[in-house]
Amino acid sequence: MKPTTLRVTAILTGYLSLAIASPAQLSDKCYYDPLPNIPASTANRTIPWGEPTITFANGTTCCSSLDQVRTELDAIDAQLLQVLSQRAAYVAEATRFKATLDSVDVPSRDQQVIQGAIEGAPAVHLPQIIAKIVYEGILNASIYFEDCIVRPFFFVCNGVLSDKNTV
Q: Model's pTM, two decimal places?
């Protein structure tokens, strides 16, 4: 099983009891890595439950329906795609400065970027686990993308371009 699967399994089966923690304390802990082990709930809750957690500058709150939440998430997803497109353009630009195939993936740099995301997450009220997993995914995809750009160039420049060497 993957570590993420193990963590989810641990959360769902509730290896440790945090019954003494208030819901607010528990939700605060959900913003840091590692996540607390939370026992499975047997309670039935009304839908919607809890109070709105997003307050806009004009004092109104979000959200009055699941459809409203999904509409906002769709808008944010469109923004994320735009930012990821810009990031990919810079990744492609970085390939111009890579002298060897080995310089495509620099694990120490990857770790520095991931750690920076984890450390910066609380300042923007982002759960650290989300920052960690998202940045791991972004960097892994970027490495494949960068390799795809660089590999054919190195094979052409070295005069060894063949079907088995193409991406």
A: 0.70
Residue 122 contacts by C-beta under 8 Å, 6 or more apart in sequence?
Answer: 31, 32, 128
Whether residues 115 and 162 fall in one domain:
yes
Q: pLDDT digit string (tens) for 148-166?
A: 888 887 766 655 444 444 4
Cα–chain center distance at 45: 29
Last residue of a domain, one of 74, 97, 120: 97
For residue 12, give its domain range.
1-43
Instruction: Say whether both 37 and 86 belong to one domain.
Output: no
The answer to whether the CB of 121 falls within 8 A of the CB of 131 is: yes
CA atoms of 68 and 82, how far apart (whole Å): 22
Cis ω before 36 (30° cut-off from 0): no
